[in-house]
Amino acid sequence: MVNMYAIRKQFFIAIGLFSFFSLFGFLNAPANASFENTSVDVHNAPSIIAGSIDFDIKSRNPLSNLNNGTIELKVIEGKAPYKILVYSTTMPLKEYQVSQDLLLTNLAAGDYMIVVSGRDNAYRSKTITLSQE
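Predicted structure:
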């Protein structure tokens, strides 16, 4: 038997990641880009230091048949301000701009993918599942 819940979860995660990369321009080539006969001299290339970002998640599961779950997010590494995208199987996409902490309330049981990006375009995603108690 096909597990439709697992398929729907994978679909939402794929759509979320595609949207995130499209939003920040990672999937778009420059209009004047030419990829024919392109060579790169790696010996003289400048070193690029990518930024890093990390965050902690604490959660509280919702009580039976109530949408009273919470997710508390605290950014512990990165450059503010932060853009936070929350994807879920139970609610539409939500976007937040924060300086460090975010508290999501009134959440239903389900899977949540959280993508945090910083001022230096570093990003990280984590998933969490809230279960009914």
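Summary: The first strand starts at residue 54 and ends at 60.
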